[in-house]
């Protein structure tokens, strides 16, 4: 772990606990900072706060005192989920106090080079795929960030022989100042999290932080098929590596119907790729580009591409049942993700959809509903999604109270050769605490068929 000048005796407020807050507080304490933790959960219910107090860290729980910053804090490290409208965060902005997420700490202490992966969709699949490729290639990767272990906990123990593959949300990137990954990856950019950022411009600017501090010794792998991403990439000082699925590009990585090309030269046949879907081709391209930059052997890249079938809850193949293939895409919490899932299959589809009603339209799914011959709806959006499906010409529509009845009805509505697909196009919180729980319930029901 690198030492960070100026952190000893610095007065730091860690705002919000959960995994990232606990890790940041413990790390700052080890670095000699005077740490105060503030969390909304009452102390008597807050096991994390109790444990931090035993380590000598000051803990304030159950409320966010409006005058807390009067105590002279020089730095705020906040949980990524806490918005900038929070009273203490807004006060810190007004006072000019730096506001970080633990990603900044992770970078500052890391002896290992970091790969930062962001985008509106595809981050987790890309991160996981790249990790497996680098691992197969003997490059000692560690996986961190918005997937798996908190980044500063990973980099605390990383050495120069490792490489840290880090999934990064816009929430995390917004709290960085000097973060400078060796390789930055920007998969795509679509409207999302406007309730947090306030505008598409602010959301886009937060994503740009993945490459903002890079220089010519670093690499930016970016989506050349999206003009908005290209416009931001043009502002980067990194060595630029565009990717495209629309034919050969001589400056980066690209693909046509038959082949993946590196700098315009044939590199790998597409026929070996096990991961289904056009949207996943983009994830493959960026992972392969990063692996090439990291000098990973070609045969190791090919080996992983031929065996990697996806990440749990992300167009995950569950099982084959009576000549039907069942897929779990519970991570599809918006219409964009469901659109990608529908486009991944040429077979007839029985779709399970619905969930938390945020009032968003399902219209962008319409061009991709042609293969959907039956729909099972559930949750707060059940009636709206059923009406939408009916307007698309779907004749078989069923309502489900829970996942087990939903899977049974989907099976009853299906035919041999069909795909039974959970891709809700909605968040899970009306019925399930997380999309992972929703997906696990789907898998459990599917295995009972």
Sum up the structure in keywords:
3 domains; peptidoglycan synthesis; ligase; globular; 449 residues; UDP-N-acetylmuramoyl-L-alanine:D-glutamate ligase; ATP-binding; single chain; Rossmann fold; alpha/beta; six-stranded mixed β-sheet; Protein-Tyrosine Phosphatase, Chain A
Describe this structure in words.
- By secondary structure, this protein is an alpha/beta fold.
- It folds into three domains: 11-100, Rossmann fold; 104-305, Mur-like, catalytic domain (UDP-N-acetylmuramoyl-L-alanine:D-glutamate ligase); 316-448, Alpha-Beta Complex (Protein-Tyrosine Phosphatase, Chain A), CATH 3.90.190.20.
- Helix content is 33%, strand content 21%.
- The chain has a nine-stranded mixed β-sheet with strand order 7-8-6-9-10-11-12-13-14, sandwiched between helices. It has a six-stranded mixed β-sheet with strand order 15-16-20-17-18-19, sandwiched between helices.
- Helix 1 (18-30) links the parallel strand 1 and strand 2 (34-39).
- The model has no long low-confidence stretch (mean pLDDT 95).
- GO terms for molecular function: ATP binding; UDP-N-acetylmuramoylalanine-D-glutamate ligase activity.
- Belongs to the MurCDEF family.
- Its EC number is 6.3.2.9.
- This is UDP-N-acetylmuramoylalanine--D-glutamate ligase.
């Amino acid at each position: 772990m690198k030492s960070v000048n100026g952190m000893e005796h610095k007065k730091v407020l860690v705002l919000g606990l959960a995994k990232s807050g606990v890790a940041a507080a413990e790390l700052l304490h080890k670095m000699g900072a005077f740490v105060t933790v503030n969390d909304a959960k009452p102390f008597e219910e807050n096991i994390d706060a109790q444990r931090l107090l035993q380590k000598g860290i000051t803990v304030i729980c159950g409320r966010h005192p409006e005058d807390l910053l009067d105590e002279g804090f020089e730095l705020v490290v906040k949980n990524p989920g806490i918005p900038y409208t929070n009273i203490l965060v807004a006060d810190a902005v007004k006072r000019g106090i730096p506001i970080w997420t633990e990603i900044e700490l992770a970078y500052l202490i890391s002896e290992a080079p970091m790969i930062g992966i962001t985008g509106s969709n595809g981050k987790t699949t890309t991160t996981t795929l790249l990790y497996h490729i680098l691992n197969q290639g003997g490059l000692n990767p560690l996986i961190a960030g918005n997937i798996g272990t908190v980044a500063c906990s990973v980099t605390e123990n990383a050495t120069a022989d490792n490489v840290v593959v880090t999934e990064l949300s816009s929430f995390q990137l917004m709290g960085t100042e000097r973060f400078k990954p060796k390789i930055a990856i920007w998969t795509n950019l679509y409207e999302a999290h406007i309730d947090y950022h306030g505008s598409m411009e602010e959301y886009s600017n937060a994503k740009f932080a993945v490459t903002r501090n890079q220089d010519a010794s670093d690499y930016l792998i970016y989506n050349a098929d999206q003009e908005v991403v290209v416009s931001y990439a043009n502002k980067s000082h990194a060595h630029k590596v565009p990717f495209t699925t629309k034919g050969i590009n001589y400056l980066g990585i690209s693909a046509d119907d038959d082949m993946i090309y590196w700098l315009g030269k044939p590199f790998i046949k597409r026929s070996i790729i096990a991961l289904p879907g056009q949207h996943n081709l983009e994830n493959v391209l960026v992972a392969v580009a990063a692996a090439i930059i990291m000098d990973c052997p070609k045969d190791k890249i090919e080996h992983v591409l031929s065996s990697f079938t996806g990440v749990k809850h992300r167009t995950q193949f569950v099982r084959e049942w009576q000549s039907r293939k069942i897929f779990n895409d519970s991570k599809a919490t918006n219409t964009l993700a469901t659109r990608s899932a529908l486009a991944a299959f040429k077979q007839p589809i029985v779709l399970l959809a619905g969930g938390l009603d945020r009032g968003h339209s399902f219209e962008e799914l319409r061009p991709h509903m042609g293969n959907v011959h039956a729909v099972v709806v559930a949750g707060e959006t059940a009636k709206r999604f059923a009406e939408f499906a009916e307007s698309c010409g779907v004749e078989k529509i069923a309502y489900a109270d829970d996942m087990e009845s939903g899977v049974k009805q989907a099976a009853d509505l299906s035919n041999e050769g069909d795909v039974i697909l959970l891709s809700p196009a909605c968040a899970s919180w009306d019925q399930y605490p997380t999309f992972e729980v929703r997906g696990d319930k789907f898998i459990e029901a599917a295995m009972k068929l």
